[in-house]
Each structure stands twice: as C-alpha cells, then as structure tokens.
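ok trying again, last paste got cut off:
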Amino acid sequence: MTLLIPDEYPKSLFRDDGKRLDGRDIYDLRPIKMEVDVIKNADGSAYIEWGNNKIFASVYGPREVHPHHLAKPDKGILRVFYRMATFSVFDRKRPAPGRREKEISMIISDCLEPVLFLELYPGTSFEIFIEVVDADGGTRCASTTVAALALADAGVPMRSLVTSCAIGKIDGKLVTDLSGIEDKAGDADLPVAITWFNDEMSLLQFDGKMTKGEMDTSLDMAQDALKKIYDMQLEALKRKYIKIQKDVQDMEVE
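nice, full thing came through this time. structure:
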C-alpha cells in the first residue's frame, strides 16, 4: 500500500483505462474477508479485512453495568467502544480516544440498537470493543458490519444483522466503497447502514456535494453493495457452525 499525504494526492482518481487507482470498476467492492470466533475469551467476536482495513470486534454480556447509575430498570443498554490503534494511520495518533472515536462509537451503537432485544435484559449491559489495527477509509462502515457479526457470534438475540457501506463521488462519478485516498480526495461520501428485518436505514450520513438525482442513484448503488456484504456475513456465520457440526461428527466416529 502506498501512503500519501494531502499535498501528494493524485490529480485524477481514475487511471487512463477508466478504472479506479486500485483497479476496481465503479461498482466494485474492495476485497472483503470475514471470520467469527477469533477471540476466545470474549462471548462473541469477529474479524474483518476490508481492503486495507483490519478490524477486530469483541462482545461481552449481558453483564452488570458499571457505573451502576447507567443501568436502566426496563431494558439493557448497549455500549460501543471504537478505538484506532496508534499505528493504524499514517500520522501516529494519540493513545487516548479522540472526539472522532467517541462520535463513531455513538454512531455504531445507534446503528445496532434497533436490531437488539434489549428489553429482555433489564439492568444489564452488552459491551462491544472495536479495535482498528489498520485503517484505510470506511472504518465506521466496516466496524458496524463486523460488530453486528460479533453480536451474532455471541448468540445475542437479534432481529437481523446490520450491514454498512459507503458510496462516494470522485472526479464527478459515483462509486461504490471508497478507499482511503478516494475518501480524502473525493467530492462526496455517503455512509449507509441497513437493518435487514425491516429494510430500513439505521445510518445515513453525508459529506460533500451531490445532486438529488445522484443521491437517489447512490442509495440504489448502496442497496446492491449491502446485499453482497450481507451474504458474506451470513457465510462467515455458516462456516463456524459447519465446522462445529463436522467436529461433532468426527468425535462420534472416534
């Protein structure tokens, strides 16, 4: 991966052959790899590689709320802690969580709460710890996606998974799944998340400039991309239970 600073951004984000700088067409996602059950001392966990992003998520709960005054008598609470490792970005960041990390923690929590049956767990909390060890654009979307996968791995009752992706505009063209350089040097960024049990958006943010027609097209592009990522989430969960089934069958044979 070639790291660039703002003064070194390329004049064009498309190659001479019409493809993006990383070789993708406008509708292509970056390579995505997902795994679950990667942190053994967590109640549930997941890992995602999304382009050059590498992110872990671990889930703990239901458990006692600390500090106690945050507990709610009629339902559980969801707490999300999104953190970026000091070495995850080009300019080394401070170890303490910054304003952006706190904001993204809140955004991810708001995305995931609609799918959880928190009313079944009064007075308790679920906590999700997200660690970004390598960042290259779209970490809030990748973190939301992997956090939902970790909740499912933990066996937390859910109405559905949550999936997130960003549509953007670079050099006047709409593209799916912005890379880091496209996010920084592009014209617009539209992160979207969907809750599949009702096909509603639980995240819609926007930065930049688009026409109304471009916005409508972007949402259509997002729907197509989110379905592909959702299928990857399901496959990651299926692989775990297929492995468990195979291990049980092997034990029975022995």
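cool. The CA atoms of residues 112 and 162 lie 7 Å apart. The helical segments are 99-112, 139-153, 180-185, 212-253.
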